[in-house]
Amino acid sequence: MKTKLNIITLALLSSCSFGLFAQGYGLSNAKTDNVKFDAWQCKGCAVETGTTGYVDAGIAYNSEDDIKSANAFNSSNQVAGKVDADIRYKGKEGYQANVEAHNLGMDNGRLDIDVGKQSVYNINVNYRSFAHYQSNSALSPYQNIGSDYLTLPDNWVTAGSSPDMPMLYRSLNPVELSLTRDRAGLGFEYQTESLFTTYVNFQREEKTGTKTTSGSFYNQSMMLAEPVDYTTDILNAGIKLRGDNWFTSVNYTGSVFKNDNNQLGFDSAFNPTFGAQTTGYIALDPDNEAHTVSLLGQYNMAMTNLSGRLLIGQMTQDQTLTTIGYGYPLPANSIDAKVDITGATLKAVTRLNRAWRVNGSYDYNDRDNKTQIEQWTQISINDVTGEAAYNTPYDLTTHRAKLSSDYRITHGIKLDGGYDFKREERSYQDRETTDEDTLWVKVNVNSFDMWNMWLKGSVSQRDGSQYQATETASSEQNALLRRYYLADRDRSQLEARFSHTPLTDLTVDFGARYALDDYSETDIGLTKSTDTYYDINLHYMVNADLSLNAFYNHQIIESEQSGSSSFSVANWQADIEDTIDYVGAGMSYSNLMDSRLKLGLDYAYSDSDSTTQVRQGVTGDYGDYFAKVHNINLYGQYQATDNMSIRVDYKMEKYLDNDDANDLNPDTIWNVVSFGNVDHDYTAHMIMLSMRYSL
Amino acid sequence: MKTTNQINTLLFTLLCLTASALFLSNQVHAAKWDATMTPAEVEATLDKKFAEGKYSPKGADSCLMCHKKSEKVMDLFKGVHGAIDSSKSPMAGLQCEACHGPLGTHNRGGKEPMITFGPDSTLAPDKQNSVCMSCHNDDKRMTWESSHHANADVACASCHSVHAAHDPVLSKQTEMDVCTSCHTKQKADMNKRTSHPMKWNQMTCSDCHNAHGSLSDADLVQPTVNETCYSCHAEKRGPKLWEHAPVTENCVNCHNPHGSVNDAMLKTRAPQLCQQCHSGDGHTSSAYLGNTDMGSTVNGNAFTGGRSCLNCHSQVHGSNHPSGKLLQR
């Protein structure tokens, strides 16, 4: 290979010595005066041109009717096909093309095609699909599901309560609650030999399906299937410039969101109440746009690295307001909403010496909502009939400052510590300013042959300006209420991790974490929360072919809150306990049957559980609220010929969840027409047979 | 109960294994020179070699005289770092020695240290990384030095493999395995009742976080938490006529994006979550007891049953209806 005089060589030959890497082995510091590049022929560099890779085609059978299983199995169809591919073409002079596909044809698949010349240009075409399945057993009397107006059958007879609706059970039909996204993108990047790179990427995503919402009249409510038909276009473009010790870029991101449905109309299933309304309309998420321009920069000095970002952006929304069934004059046909975003960030790292490093940063972010404040009359769906209300466009300004330092005491012992400050300034809220101060310290110890460990502790305190619970937005709230995201809070955390390698091929990791949030000044609201977590993981390479692993994770989050039903001092308490146990094991066995067979088996079980107790003289609970999931993934791959392999995958998901609050018939709650019980209880199996052809 | 016993048994077994392992000793050496040199001596030698710049007479060909039998070594040429037609590849410059440092006298028996990479290398990670960062200085890695991973002494090669046709961590199918091998709590999170679809690799850590650091909190790829969420949930962006203050301020006020034992990744279920901020002179301040001996049931009324508060206030993410102040329209 003839050596080129290129930027790397130039960097090597440069007499400049830059960088934070002065103490490292950065190329710009390499002493290459005596290198005779003409003799560096690289005859042994075995780069082959041509096409390599594989194509894989598979077919899967899914035994299960409950559509939720399709989340794990990638398809809601009983029989599904897929194509995987990784095809790489290398031409001469750096021309190349790659095609990568995974699960293409299934509900969650992706495809990436790249064509270009190495280090010069690249054209990318991509496609991705996603699907999320919630339920296919929800029941609804509504017709025209998926449209923007849900009607009840012609012969529907309203009633004052759901059990008295004579047509309810005769009108129920299953509704699928699922969302799919289809994304397609096109990108182009061009680099010059030296400083300059430019790029432009465009992506369009179509999101369709139905999700749960509710329509209500005063105290009556119906669960509804909200249509989702969104289109989001995203454009990214920018220019990057770099030198030996600096980098800068100017970037633009634009995002345009369109919702094909402006509002969702629905018939009332109940007898009319306030305002005698028989149909209702809820506004759906409006079309909107967001545009951001950012300037990034980095500069490396001998011992110091500086990086920063300036950004300005604007989010706008000018959707024509829904007026069907409203009946009052509007101050404007659309709110012409505008939020200006301004951001500035600076980070600095400096090495005082080989062992001691200091980090500092400051971050400013401002959300300035410039939407006009207007008077809006509230309509007769509840007891605020005819009331005038003013919108409250929220502003938020955040300042974050951090200072930290790490000092390597010995090769294997490092001490870290830091101070973080965060100030948030808000409008129209109970507290205009909150300040949070955090101190943390961490010790890393890697000085033992078989042990690595670290211990981290932190304390933080949040307070701020006077809490004005009776002002503006909270005029109707209890004066003792302290909203948890604004309240004074003392937080302490302690975390430790150990990694032990008793044998070359055996690693045992274990760690634990405890966090306490104490809302010391709160009488009503969230008063305390603790989070206890630990895990243990084992990985054992029995030999070059066989590896085993096992793990167990446990977490318990306990929360306490108080309320007052008498609008004075606290007179009820709630205790919530969330628990997760996650345990599993796996093995991988390669090179069986004369190196032709590979086997793998993974098993995992997760148990999510939550209990809620509320006490006010008597104690009540919220019953079962759990999800228990077993997953097995077993596969065998057999290399039949040099080019052909066969793989069989077996997947099993045993899924059981429950929520006593939703253990319902459609008319269990007198003033709600619900979807009924949407719990899941299934054991689903999937078998996939695939064949891979290697090029 | 049975499951709990099974878990306890497994835990006990793991602990026994750990305890027994304490009594076993088998010192790990990453490279030939680590048997006779301390890490400090290795580093001093490498510093000296780098300063002297005694590169090989024939570049890669000198190295391959001994190392060409290694499949892993030769796999370099399947990836971009082994490309010979790219002006930005190491092979267009100092070749093997661009990364592994000057040969010096290493070719005389292989006892003199070379720069080695990965978690088993005794060379300090920042020294290893200085090699990588001297080329990979761009918008995705410009804050590496102040990133969480750099501070935690993670070597580039702990996650990345350059002697390979494919770097596993760059594949969406294997990325989660790499990240969760250290971030075990997040692995448990994504297996809770609800989470983003990371369990099946449909979403991956890098969709939201930049492992090389960023100028944002938690090394997010977007400037703020909400802008990270809006990049996939643009419908939540608004700005809407009636904003819900904590929603506008920060999505993670109510949600845990890594997963939750509650539906919709909520930190707490309704009505308790709502009652942590709403205690008015009316229905928001009542104690909703759920199932009691007095005859009430959790699924028997609209305050706790079904969608709880959301039965009526379904527009919790804000409303653009003229009459949407109470987030019902």
TrEMBL record, chain A:
InterPro entries per the UniProt record, alphabetical: Decahaem-assoc_OM_MtrB/PioB (IPR020016)
Keyword rRNA-binding included in the entry's annotation: no
The keyword Signal appears for this protein: yes
Keywords recorded for this protein, A-Z: Signal
PROSITE patterns assigned to the protein according to its UniProt record, in alphabetical order: PROKAR_LIPOPROTEIN (PS51257)
Leader sequence segment: 1-22
NCBIfam families given in the database record: OMP_MtrB_PioB (TIGR03509)
Listed name of the protein: Membrane protein
UniProt source species: Shewanella ulleungensis
TrEMBL record, chain B:
Keywords: Signal
Alphabetized Pfam families for the sequence: Cytochrom_c_NrfB-like, Paired_CXXCH_1
Secretion signal, residue range per the UniProt entry: 1-30
Presence of the UniProt keyword Repeat in the record: no
Domain (Cytochrome c-type protein NrfB-like): residue spans on this chain: 96-172
All residue ranges annotated as the Doubled CXXCH motif domain in the record: 198-237, 244-281
PANTHER family per record: DISSIMILATORY SULFITE REDUCTASE SIRA (PTHR35038), SURFACE LOCALIZED DECAHEME CYTOCHROME C LIPOPROTEIN (PTHR35038:SF6)
Designated name of the protein: Cystathionine beta-synthase
Originating organism: Shewanella ulleungensis
